[in-house]
Amino acid sequence: MSLKGKSAIVTGSTSGIGQAIAEAFAAQGCNVMLNGFGEPAAIARQREQMAKKNGVEVEYNGADMSKPAEIADLVARTKAAFGGVDILVNNAGIQFTAPVEQFPAEKWDAIIAVNLSATFHAIHAALPLMKARKWGRIVNIASTHGLVASANKAAYVAAKHGVVGLTKVVGIECADTGVTCNAICPGWVLTPLVQAQIEARAKAENITVEKANHDLLADKQPQVQFTRPDQIAGLALFLASDTASNMQGAELVSDGGWTAQ
Ligand code: NAD
Questions:
Q1: pTM above 0.90, yes or no
Q2: Residue 60 annotated among the catalytic residues of the structure
Q3: Ligand 1 neighbour 48 (Cβ under 6 A)
Q4: Is 41 helix (H, G, I), strand (E, B) or coil?
């Protein structure tokens, strides 16, 4: 598949799944707007390497996805840099775990802002640009936690269920416009976001990181394996392809059987 000449925003693409998605799109000839937090020197390196390796334009915008005005600016600057926004991948996300009665209100607000409201604000700003060109792809990175719940994840589960619901509404509203909106629901993917949970578990249960790793997977997934970031990127590429042009409001699950049970 060639995405030559197209342009994509991938939020939260300085790490983990977003980074793999940005690389996969660039490899298909797509210009990419990177976003996310990190060391300026490391981000500059990522940007240069991605551009050089793939012969595409790669820009970076450090919008804080919890801030609607910065999200609007991210979309406007992408249009200014590349002439449009053809693909929007809403990927930036954060996590915090605690029982609901101990869940700090500011953590609730932050997770809803970054994991859910940012998806709305980015779609709100980018969709008119896509509709004007009669082609667009919106890919929302939800989670198995958009479909089922786990204890101690009130904000994350609420946000991801919200993302799945928002995906369905936008998918319906985009019917026959040339724009599609779909979600990907990964189970466990080994990224810094999950590494923190593994290390916390090892400490809390006084077990090795290897055992915590295994137990985390085995608790949820019959297939005791992580999905790799590049496999999630493959699903995002699929959703951007012509093969997926009749998919609207769907969720693609890659979770080792977690939600099949
Ligand atoms: P990660 O921590 O490796 O990456 C998160 C990215 O989001 C980073 O680039 C970070 O800088 C960025 N980010 C965080 N807060 C931001 C903000 N306010 N503004 C802009 N950028 C911000 O995590 P990951 O595992 O790659 O997660 C990516 C997405 O995948 C998230 O939405 C997450 O919920 C989802 N997801 C992850 C897993 C998993 O097992 N890792 C499973 C299901 C869903």
A1: yes
A2: no
A3: no
A4: helix
